[in-house]
Amino acid sequence: MATFSQGDIVKVPFTYTDRSTRQSRPALVVSLPSLETEHGLLWVAMITSADNRAWPGDVTIDNLTLAGLPAPSVIRPTKIATIEAKDAQKLGELAQVLLHQTLRHIGNRLIAAD
Description:
Elements: E1 8-15, E2 22-29, H1 33-39, E3 41-49, E4 59-60, H2 64-67, E5 73-84, E6 89-93, H3 96-110
Antiparallel strand pairs: 1-2, 1-6, 2-3, 3-5, 4-5
């Protein structure tokens, strides 16, 4: 049985390429639970500080309490990763309207318009 659901906000270890340390960072689970059940993996979208320079497609998280985040943050749907589910820890969840907005942005990058 899956531990995480699409729309969960999780804390994941992030490894820097220029150092041997790992830091925990927030991310949004964008995969369906079947990916975790079948392979033990999650697809996640990066969450970063709202103070950083905005990228096209960024989604502002408007309910920090629900999300379990301490500071103003945005989802960066153009930066997705595959992680081991066992390495994630749930922080909160994203409002459905923002999840759908994020998934639409990702989908627009995966499926060519006819």
